[in-house]
Amino acid sequence: MPATMAPKPTTSGVAVNGFANMFLWPWMEAMQSLQQANGSVAARGPSGMEEVIPLGEEVLEVGKRTENRGTARIHRYVVETPVEERVTLQSERVVVERRRPVSDKVTGEILTEVTVEVVETAEVPTIAKRARLREEVVVRTERSQHVEVVRETVRRDEVDIQQPGKRQSQQLRSVTEAR
């Protein structure tokens, strides 16, 4: 065999000419493995091979997930406010007076030692605080539902078939479109 000629690859034992070698060679191994995986494929055309062109499409799948939309934070804190209340207080003080007697006549013991104690009193304000419930703050979540329309563009493969001798090109409809 001369050094300038490369051996011609064969598909299923059929020799491939130079034109097919140039354009179909990358597909031949894939087709051979496809034929072996699917079993034998019926031969079409004079060369005894066929080419499968897969047509795909995108399908829109809409799901949902929960996202954090923010956090509401409720913080309780103490505020000190000065308050005033008026209260009336009483006090007693000792008053000592000297006066002249109304008469000279003695009515009690005299000329003896006597000690008299009188207590002075005064009211002072007392402060006591008690805690009471002023109001309640209730924190909860409420769920609501709404319908949202999701719009997206999906793609699919289509095939235009142009054959010699036909006036217009045909568009092959997909199997899923016919359903």
What would you say this structure looks like, in words?
The protein is low in regular secondary structure. The protein has helices at 18-38, 175-178, and strands at residues 10-11, 14-15, 91-92, 121-122, 159-161, 170-172. The strands form 3 sheets. A two-stranded antiparallel sheet has the order 1-2. A two-stranded antiparallel ribbon has the order 3-4. Strand 5 (159-161) and strand 6 (170-172) form a beta hairpin. The radius of gyration is 56 Å and the shape is rod-shaped.
Question: Keywords for this structure?
Answer:
2 helices; 14% helix; two-stranded antiparallel sheet; 179 residues; little secondary structure; rod-shaped; disordered N terminus; single chain
What gyration radius follows from the Cα positions, in whole Å? 56 Å
Oligomer: single chain
Compute the number of strand runs.
Answer: 6
- Give the overall silhouette: rod-shaped
Helix content estimate: 10-25%
Amount of beta strand: 5-15%
Which residues sit in consecutive blocks of at least 5 with pLDDT less than 50? 1-16, 39-43
Reading the helices and strands in chain order gives EEHEEEEH
Roughly how many Å apart are the termini? 56 Å
Write the layout of secondary structure elements.
Elements: E1 10-11, E2 14-15, H1 18-38, E3 91-92, E4 121-122, E5 159-161, E6 170-172, H2 175-178
Antiparallel strand pairs: 1-2, 3-4, 5-6
What does this entry show, briefly?
The protein is largely without helices or strands and 179 residues long. The chain is built from two helices and six strands, in the order E-E-H-E-E-E-E-H. The model is unreliable at 1-16 and 39-43 (pLDDT under 50).
